[in-house]
Amino acid sequence: MSDRGDRGNLLLPTLAALALVAGWLALRGFQTPIEPPTEIAQARPRYHLQDAHWQRFDESGAPLFVLAAADLDYFDDASMQLAGVRLDTYADEGNWRLEADRGMVPAGETRLRLEPLVELRGAREHSGRIALKTPTLWVDWRARTLSTDQPVEASTAAGSTLKARGLRGDWAGRHVEFLDAVRVRHVLRD
Predict the structure, then answer these.
(1) Is the pTM value of this prediction over 0.85?
(2) Which architecture does CATH list for 42-185?
(3) Does the keyword Zinc-finger apply (predicted)?
(4) CA dist., res. 165 & res. 177, Å (int)
């Protein structure tokens, strides 16, 4: 009879333990799975390139621009972060060379934002050279435009200077419009 009593003493705790495990498994099935935060997943680039060189051509096969970056991170949403950026635009009548410490292409965009200090140097066939500085600049390679709403400083090889707020310009430098608070100091040639 003691043999039978010992089995009953062991059976009851074993059944209780099995009931607890079954209950835990049932409750676990109703919980939502824990996903890593989206910000963390998006913060990691899909690709990282060093000394990147990107050249784009127009419909006729002529070079449209050449972009060089010391570092380029490409993300799953097709956005990019760049460091040590130099961009050369090409057009029949002139070109721009743009340099900045950083650049970014937002997801789904066809334009590049350069910052924190952007230096632009342009040359046109008949009007000489111009140098500009601005804190940020948008470069739209599809529309072939440059633009900013930030302060702009410009100077020419002849010594003329210009300060303004905002700029819109075309790819070749044929048309550059300074938007607001324009101040010009013009130096006459001898």
Answers:
(1) no
(2) Sandwich (2.60)
(3) no
(4) 10
